[in-house]
Design brief:
By secondary structure, the chain is mainly beta. It contains one helix and six strands; from the N terminus they run βαβββββ. It has a six-stranded antiparallel beta sheet.
Length: 96
């Protein structure tokens, strides 16, 4: 134990700010109310604020669907329960 080097110890007399004093909360109720495009769908799927795919509420011409979107294949969305939703029929997407 005598062969170990000495460790330099600096005196800390100021605030280091290594803890988070402020936080930013993101809006969980993101709404896309304009006409839905493929870019909007891709932005929703590639959102870095969600670890897993978010739960969404999709309003189509004749139905309201609560689901998780897995991926986009050409002009359709594939949901977690193997439903395919045509992007042209979508009127609104809302993250829930």
């Amino acid at each position: 134990m005598n062969d170990l080097p000495n460790v330099y110890q600096n005196h800390i007399d100021h605030n280091i700010n290594n803890e988070q004093n402020y936080f930013v909360s993101f809006d969980k109720n993101k709404k896309i109310n304009k006409s839905i495009t493929i870019d909007d769908i891709d932005n929703l799927l590639n959102d870095r604020h969600h670890i897993f795919k978010p739960n969404v509420k999709i309003t189509t011409n004749n139905d309201v669907i609560n689901c998780k979107i897995v991926r986009r294949i050409n002009n359709e969305l594939l949901t977690m329960d193997n439903k395919k939703i045509d992007i042209n029929l979508i009127r609104n997407i809302e993250i829930i």
